[in-house]
Design goal:
Strand order of the largest sheet: 1-2-4-5-6-7-8-9
CATH architecture of the largest domain: Alpha-Beta Barrel
Shape: globular
Distance between the termini: 45 Å
CATH class of the largest domain: Alpha Beta
CATH topology of the largest domain: TIM Barrel
Radius of gyration: 20 Å
Length: 333
């Protein structure tokens, strides 16, 4: 399935979270959702270790590459590299509020330069055949979102962009950390709904503060797609119901134990290549959320997973802790 068919639900690009291991793990929970890389700058793509930065497992498809940058020619070249590597979509970050991103003149600060963003998108679209999309905020600082969001979208649409992922809150570039910018500025879902109503020819996905599949399904009444961020990372088990609830597929949901089993061959192959266990188990920490033994599951994976030479039997011990906790719950119920 191509990225164009998968946007109905996607997992957000999240720095230090959605690495290649996380994406393979998430793919074991949902075959249909669109997955995103962490943001990679054009400088890193053009000059860095491409296997380390851009390498991925074929199982991840459909998977999109998110770029950070503001030089049209560099973005076009980076997009071509992404397409050559087989990515299903190339996305431009116009939403990250970190100081490092601002100093590089990309991310959320580009909300102030819609014509530059449009020029970047035109170059990228001309360079590749895969979809090229934008992820943005509704505005930054003292901008009026009713003006800033529509101006950016219209400029990019004129350049040929047809799909936008909108984080439904402003970014305050001075005085708030990136973490605070994910929580403090108020959400404005109705503005994103309005964008879809007034630009019906565009594909509009909504992002920001969406904590459950129930909430995602409610948003899908008004927009084309939903992007989950922290909820998908901290409670990955919710992805196990995505194919049935969001995409209408028949068959059972993927439960937490099945997700672990599906991921085990990748863990074994990665360990054999010299990857440490800690980064491999990190995406699994949120499994069994709210279930008996969840705390022991996390503790075993985090404490034992960082030890030198840690192997996959750490996962077995963590699963045993889950079973022990369940048995105790049944014994006293």
């Amino acid at each position: 399935m191509t990225a164009a068919l998968a946007h109905r639900l996607s997992v957000a690009p999240m720095m230090d979270w959605t690495d290649r291991h996380c994406r393979v793990f998430h793919r074991g929970l949902t075959r249909r959702a669109l997955l995103y890389t962490e943001m990679v700058t054009t400088g890193a793509v053009l000059n860095g270790d491409r296997e380390r930065l851009l390498g991925y497992d074929p199982a991840e498809h459909p998977v999109a590459l998110q770029l950070g940058g503001s030089e049209p020619a560099d973005l076009a070249q980076a997009a071509r590299i992404g397409e050559d590597l087989g990515y299903d979509e190339i996305n431009l970050n116009v939403g990250c509020p970190s100081d490092r991103v601002q100093s590089g003149r990309f991310g959320a600060c580009l909300m102030r330069e819609p014509d530059l963003v449009a020029a970047c998108m035109a170059e990228m679209i001309a360079a590749v055949r895969v979809p090229v999309t934008v992820k943005c905020r509704i505005g930054v600082d003292d901008q009026d979102p009713d003006e800033s969001l529509f101006r950016l979208v219209d400029a990019c649409a004129a350049a040929g962009v047809t799909r936008f992922v909108v984080h439904a809150r402003k970014a305050l570039l001075q005085g708030l950390s990136p973490k605070e910018n994910r929580d403090i500025p108020p959400l404005n879902y109705p503005l994103v709904y309005q964008l879809k109503r007034e630009r019906p020819q565009l594909t509009i996905d909504i992002n920001g503060g969406i904590a459950s599949l129930d909430a995602a399904m409610a948003h899908l009444e008004a927009v084309d797609g939903v992007m989950l961020g922290r909820a998908a990372y901290h409670e990955p088990g919710l992805l196990g119901a995505v194919d049935r609830r969001v995409f209408g597929e028949a068959g059972p949901d993927v439960d937490d134990r099945s997700a672990v089993a599906a991921y085990r061959p990748y863990v074994a192959a990665s360990l054999a290549r010299g990857v440490g266990l800690a980064p491999l188990v990190r995406p699994m920490l949120g499994l069994f959320h709210g279930q008996p033994g969840a705390r022991a599951w996390r503790r075993i994976l985090t404490v034992e997973g960082v030890r030198p030479g840690a192997a996959a039997d750490v996962i077995d011990r963590a699963l045993e802790a889950i079973e022990t906790a369940r048995a105790r719950r049944l014994e006293f119920s």
